[in-house]
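Retry 2 of 3 after timeout on previous attempt. Resubmitting structure tokens to design endpoint.
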């Protein structure tokens, strides 16, 4: 399948235009990163606590931010998570003093208290328990203390649930398997073994909070710093390995150097877009950058391989014409592969959800920039180097 036939574009004749555009984009990207103090690292790298919260109704982020500020958590980052109808947000809290799991729990407790002060503001008796934010163990202990409920569970009226432990496990399992929050007591009534008598006692002794903290993640600062170093090292090692491989395959370091410079160009500009968009660099984004290193390098090698083939077949033709011919011959293949990859990444960006949104964003930008650099950066650098070498010989 060939989209384009008999293409005859003078790519090399526009090499200084391409180089100029790349230099401007690189300088702007580096300036943005410098101005903002480097990339905006996620919790994975800087350390801290991630709290996943689900609400009964669409949450007001401004109200949440105000509540957290009143608790001294004004540096928290709040963002929507998953589909809008899921009513979920992620609250990220930077590392507190210390480096332990206890600090993670302290941050979670502070966030929980701040949210309760706003969303559960109505006066609720202290002897009632929130079924949307209670652990199985705490709920079990609470049910054991409720003598009427314990007696009822031992009676013949509830043949499935015979103990407070089984009832607590049934309620929390249902909650966790249905989005992390219980909207109404009618849902609890659908649990096998929960009779009307049990449901009546639960309604009298508990309440359903307006939100639920269904997941908490913690990364210590030392782990975050190690991940930073490992991510940078992984990218550098990948580039060095590619440089050595291409130098051996093409019997010349200039091919490898041109390809690595083009990949550096792609990574820097992609990071620049992350800086412009004020997006976080997470582990999934690093995975996307490493993917782009391989993808862009593969695209460049295809062009270089065709250049090498045409050099063997046409030794008397100037190198500039051979490079133009090679790029034009592989242009249809480039559009097919890069175009399909770009459309796939674009679909992931718009439809893939919040979890892989950063990964998809890096792919969308990286595939576009990588395709451009294979044509407008790597190949012109090859010609500039050979022209420089020829000038030295003359």
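Retry 2 succeeded. Sequence:
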């Amino acid at each position: 399948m060939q989209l384009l036939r008999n293409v005859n574009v003078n790519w090399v004749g526009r090499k200084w235009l391409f180089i100029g555009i790349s230099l401007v984009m690189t300088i702007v990207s580096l300036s943005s990163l410098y101005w903002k103090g480097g990339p905006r690292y996620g919790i994975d790298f800087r350390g801290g606590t991630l709290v996943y919260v689900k609400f009964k109704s669409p949450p007001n982020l401004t109200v949440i931010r105000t509540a957290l500020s009143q608790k001294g958590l004004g540096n928290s980052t709040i963002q929507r998570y998953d589909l809008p109808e899921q009513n979920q947000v992620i609250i990220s809290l930077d590392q507190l003093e210390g480096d332990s799991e206890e600090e993670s729990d302290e941050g979670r407790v502070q966030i929980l208290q701040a949210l309760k002060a706003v969303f559960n503001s109505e006066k609720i008796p202290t002897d009632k328990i929130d079924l949307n934010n209670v652990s199985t163990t705490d709920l079990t202990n609470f049910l054991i203390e409720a003598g009427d409920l314990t007696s009822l569970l031992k009676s013949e009226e509830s043949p499935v649930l015979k103990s407070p432990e089984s009832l607590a496990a049934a309620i929390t399992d249902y909650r966790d398997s249905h989005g992390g929050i219980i909207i109404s007591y009618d849902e609890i009534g659908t649990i096998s073994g929960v009779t009307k008598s049990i449901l009546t006692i639960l309604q009298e002794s508990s309440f359903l909070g307006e939100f639920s903290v269904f997941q908490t993640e913690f990364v210590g600062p030392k782990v975050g710093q190690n991940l930073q170093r490992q991510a940078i090292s992984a990218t550098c090692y990948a580039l060095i390995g590619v440089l050595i491989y291409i130098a051996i395959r093409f019997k010349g370091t200039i091919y490898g150097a041109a390809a690595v410079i083009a990949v550096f160009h792609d990574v820097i500009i992609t990071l620049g877009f992350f800086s412009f968009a004020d997006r976080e660099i997470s582990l999934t984004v690093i995975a996307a950058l490493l993917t782009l290193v391989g993808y862009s390098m593969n695209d460049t090698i295809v062009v270089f391989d065709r250049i090498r083939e045409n050099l063997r077949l046409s030794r008397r033709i100037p190198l500039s014409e051979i490079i133009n011919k090679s790029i034009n011959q592989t242009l249809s293949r480039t559009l097919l592969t890069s175009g399909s990859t770009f459309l796939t990444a674009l679909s992931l960006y718009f439809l893939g959800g919040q979890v892989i949104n950063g990964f998809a964003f890096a792919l969308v930008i990286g595939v576009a920039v990588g395709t451009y650099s294979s044509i407008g950066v790597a190949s012109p650098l090859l010609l500039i180097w050979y022209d420089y070498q020829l000038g030295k010989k003359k």
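Attempt log closed. The chain has a mean pLDDT of 84.
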